[in-house]
Amino acid sequence: MFKVKVYVTEIEQANLYEVDIDGFKTAVAPCMGDDDSAVTFKSALTTVLEYKYGDCDFDYTCCSVEGVCYMYDVEVIDDVE
What we know:
Layout: E1 2-12, E2 16-21, E3 24-28, H1 41-53, E4 57-66, E5 69-77
């Protein structure tokens, strides 16, 4: 188990988010060709956490909101010993 600080910034409303996990930055966008597809702060957060850390459990708390930027304290629970 370890903790990371994550920043999620909305670039385009419901269309493009930047996620920064301790310096690992990537963008999250909706699926192309799916008219009903949308991205939220939480879906961007969980998508990148699953991509970076794989099949782990996560516990996160939103600790700051500044306009279009959310800061999360995330605890990554990795059951691998």
